[in-house]
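Journal club prep — side note

Before the paper discussion, L.F. wants everyone to see what a predicted structure for a comparable chain looks like in token form. Sequence:
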Amino acid sequence: MIRALILPFLAALMAMMPVAYAQPVDGGRAMVELITERERVEPGETFYAAIKMDLDAGWHVYWRNAGDAGLPPQVDVLDGSDITEASIGPFVWPIPHLLPVVEGEIMDYGYDDRLVLPFPLTIPADAMGSVQLNLLADYLICEEICIPETAEVSLTLPVGPSEPHIEDGMLISKWIAKAPRDFDGEARIDASSSLWKLSLKTEGGFDPGSNIRFYPFGHEISHPADQPLSFGSDGATLSLTPADDSLEAALEGIVVVETPDGDRAGYTIAADQGSVFENTAGIAARSASSGAGGQSLIALALAAVIGGLILNLMPCVLPVLSIKAMGMVHAVASGHESEVRSHGLWYTGGVLLSFAALAAAIIAIREATGTANLGFQLQNGPTVAVLTLIMFVIGLWLLGMFELGTSIQNTGSSLASRSGSMGAFFTGVLAAVVGAPCIGPFLGAALGAVLDRPAISVLIVFLAMGLGLALPYLVLSFVPGLSRLLPKPGRWMETLKQFFAFPMFLTAALLLWTLGAVSGPAAVAWTVAGGTLIAFGIWLARRGGGTLAKAVAAIAVIAGLVYPALTANSSVAAGEGNAQYAEKYETEAWSPQRVAELTAKGRPVFVDFTATWCATCQLNKATTLKSKAVQNAFAAHDVAFLVADFTRKDPVIAEELKRRQRAGVPMYLWYAAGATEPEILPEVLSQKLVIGLVTSE
């Protein structure tokens, strides 16, 4: 009778006692503790316990797949435990990070500092009084060397009405939240080529500023190999280096997505074999500096300033800058610092106003059509015709066929000064208009990203580009010590001035070639006739004469400028473009349908997005794509060579450039044999690069 009364009393007393924890155990390089989200447990209930490990600085332990070397932690039930191994579930593994052991050769996956490994725990249904859990934590911990360690951990849990352990429960919940979730989308692995393509399709896609890495559950891929990443509107694709030549089943693992602000999320996938999903590749991954956010816009603006500085060295800009150089020499020779500064400011104003106008035009076109690209002004026949004639007239002026502003200069020094300022301003305008299509090699990808941003972002980046273009002359104008380094005027200036006329004529010839591709041969003929008419008007004005002669000269100059522009506008449909490379290797016109047909047949495909007015495109043709070595490589590997000629407006090409986040041409796409999504190549090509891609098939 007494025993029957004492036992329930003892059970109730035990139920009121808090959970009895053992102290953390020092395993050697880690403090190990067994924790639980319950203070008191009910018979038969399931909840989470966890192994908590606080590691010494510089030491790490491993994920469920350790990588190339290492072993993951595990636990074994010790004697005296009331809970069996069958009542303990598997670890909930948090997202790991990379542990490079030998750069490029050995890569592991794991954790440092602190690791909490939750696992489900089921209390026996017949538990009474208290239950004892004794575990042996067995783990490999590494720094420069690896040491196997063990720690015996235990806890006693009173049985009674369930009661949470607030502090440890929150810690366990926090680490469960770090585990990967099920992927809300589809995954597919294309293992048909030398690099496997892991295609991830999800609604809305991924932020192109994100970094994505695949961590396999097995050893099907090379762990240390880079995983090149590209994006599409519906997802992303990773290029994986296989560890062997075949994949027998689905590829399983987790995909870790790190956003530009540093947040990490993991998703469990099982990728079945098949082709890459459409719209999950083709847009190159952006670095964090080109992602979203205020800091990235600042970084992009700084890159634009550097691109503008480099633009001063481009062949399409140098002839115009020669005019500015002459004006600076004259201004410095005058000895008036205010005049030198005025030149610099007016020139900068002309450049900035032109780039602002270019940004405004791109924004307006984007709003009206949904797409916008650099170089659009050279797809317009009248614009190209007028630019051609302006270059021709400037060449005539440099040769001394006529003088600008002499009549104004005679009216007084103030008007002469105004003439010089306006000359500097329009030189800036001309430099910006001619130089804009040459931006591609420096900022093509970055501008492609910014063109989809709010209008203010587009304007800031374009103004930064203009500032870079004008900066050398602005600095020269405001630093007296630098401006004094310029040579003094002399007869050499007249000789140099006449010499620079010939680059102007060559620029006009290039524009004529572009005009022929945009508007046809008739527009070229009428533009040449217009140039002749302008030259006649200048010649007639130089001879002097009465009012009638001056009127005829003015009419000739105006007609020479206006009529070619009108004819260029009316003959747009006549142009055939110029996409020919060489007679020895056949090219085809690009289209998405043709790419799909060729890739379905397993042929490698090289696509050149080009334009007659693109100087970088012509340089790549001359040095690489027309070379005998590249053409022989194409022929030997049956490469289909497709050309997307963007000399004239083409909405399909414009949409493809937008899809690949490119602001304009050049753009080069490489489809390896069997691939359905391309690799985007650099804007400046080399024979070694192209031949290396082809011969790696």
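L.F.'s comment for the group: The longest helix spans residues 337-369. Keep this in mind when we get to the figures.
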